[in-house]
Input
Amino acid sequence: MAKEPLMPKHQGFPAGLLGTQWQFTIRRANSKVTPLTAWPRQRTMDKSVALADIEFVQALWRHFGTEPFQRGNLDGERLCRLFGREVLPAERAFDPASYFALLKLNASLARKNFPQAFEDTMEAGKP
Output
């Protein structure tokens, strides 16, 4: 049996959007890591797609804030929907196909594009 590649896991990060097919984390490392690229966001009739984006941004904000974080077990598809806009590389030698790649939340753009993700922090008086 082949040994799985190492993958940092983010304890306490939500697994996905309850009641939908959208996941935020993966359980096991895959030898074919989904490279992070900017995917276009297109309007869709499925409102759960947009809701999953909002909830994922909110989870990133709550878990990491503006601090750099490793990609780890965060879902590649969900990251690709935000990559290059709300989620940016946080290192010069960025490897888009590494579980150890450092990312950061572009909080100003995320607040503009997903204001609902920050509503509870605004109510609590947090910046």
